[in-house]
User: What shape does this take?
Amino acid sequence: MMNRIQAWPRILLAASLLGAALLPGLQEPPAVHAAASPAVLIAKADRWSYSDEGKDYGAAMKSASYDYSGWKSGQAPLGYKTDSSGNATNNVAPSSEFGKVSTVIAYGPGTSQKNTASYFSKSIAIADPSAYESFQGLFGVDDGLVLYANGQEVYRASMPSGTVSYSTLATTSKDLPVVMQADLTAALRAALKPGVNIIAAEVHNQSPSSSDLYWDMQLLAVPTGSGTPGGGAEAPASLAMTFSGDPASSRAFAWYTPSAVTGTRLEIVEGTYTDATWPSAAATSIAGTSQSIQAYASSSDKSAGKKTSYVSHKATATGLKPGTTYSYRAGDGTSGRWSAVGTFRTAESSPSSYSFLFTTDPQGTTESEFVTWNHTLTEGMAKFPDARFVAVTGDLVDNGDLESQWGWVLGKPAELLRRLPLAPAVGNHESKSYSNFGWHFNLPDTGTGAQPAGSVYSFDYGPAHFMVLNTEFDEASGSDPIYQKQVAWLRADAAASSKKWKIVLLHKSPYSVANHSSSSDILFFRNNLTKVFDELGIDAVLGGHDHTYTRTYPMKANSPQTNPTLDANGDMVRPNGTLYVTSNAAGDKRYTPKSGPFPYAYKYGQPGKEMFTGVTVSTDRLTFQVYTTTEAGSTALYDRFGIVK
Assistant: This one.
């Protein structure tokens, strides 16, 4: 096992911080094989020197010659939460990654005149930076962070562009500390030197009246030649696992790399392994395909007409054993270009009961908004730890042609998504005009011609058959051959399935209660597509788009069946119609319900919080448990219902 850094000389680390919010992280499944860990250069809950004087240190504290001996010291996490009397307390919401504040620091002259920055320093040393192929940072921060190594900026989050001074405010504010992960490999390779180094960080409050501040971090170094991930900018990014075939015997994967990395390899092995214990000799190597693409990296690049070259990679593992745990990694077969190891379990041949998460509309434009998405998924998995996949019914991003947003929606919950497949539907913000959805997901082509690629497909899981539609095509303004092909495909696909439950996933819900409820495309679906669902005996239609919550009565011929038979649990027994559920957003964007009336709605509203639903599928019952959650508050049951047949 690698020796921990405490046995080495010292490298100086300094951090300055101003208030943001911390999101509980997800842990990988416990390894069953003994593992050597990467070197821990900075551990969680280490002791730090700090200054809470509200002094602008400028460039001085970034220098290797700066004298920190007069600073205070304390164990991380460090920070404060002001109470109603203006006292600094340790009541900052804890993080599962770093925990509760251990050292309370001063916040400044008054509750509305808090220090813009607090500074922290940590001394360690590194004998030979070239001995490591990867440097990985994990930060617990409240609000904005700028990190330096020997005076060179190596990472920035929730801070404006340009020069940062003591008085610069963070761009976002959260009520909880935020966990941020960063691959610092390329930046630290350029900045570190053998022996003593200085790493300095500024983390800024969003407002002088910010109520809390939080700081802790971890820095790991992966030894060169270990075959573990983190090979800087050339390692896979935006890795997504999906279904393209039988979930009992296959898994599909997609990821991005820079344009220079064109090789596509998936290694997979039965059992649970980690990065450090990867059994290269025992793993099966699967060749995949790659496509060179060009896309806008950011909104500023789009405004300037500047595209970045990427490579979209796809690989599929087939011939897997049902009900079996597998570990995998993606890359091009070159050391240093592998993803982190992920672990998943195939579906059983005939699972009698299982659950999945239903979410919609993570849709954001900033990195912090996708921290909210990560929190929603984290809370969902805490309530349904055995969920087999996540259904996301569209508007994963706000701008479907901007890769920064795709990086956040897939990157913020990266740990979770390495072990949990996505079942995505395309939304209007992904758009039929953009190809990015098809580049990011490895999904089957069902021949409907719907764009983007992979937006119409189906899969079986246990006793349920899932059909995913693309609601970017309709006939509200005239004949549309793509819509007609989707309907024909839907009829044929449903007829070919013998599964007891038939569930449709789509973005634009036919029945909702906010502004979209009277849009021409929604009215078309309500008056026409629902007839097809009636014809096919669809049990449930799960959607989004209107950023409110609506659960209908069973609907038949566009009429609510208001007196369904209920069992002792309050579940509907063999309802004569289809149940439509429109979820509130999993992200920060919400709409207000219109005045109505909405005769089809059994329950509707805007709870003002993010939402996820745990759906449990068994041979005779579908059970829906709808939860609301916020980063600053609790997670609570909002609705519960079911279908029995």
About this structure: Residues 5-223 form a domain with the Jelly Rolls fold (CATH 2.60.120). Residues 367-383 form the longest helix (17 residues). Helices lie at 185-191, 299-304, 367-383, 403-411, 414-417, 436-440, 481-496, 520-536.
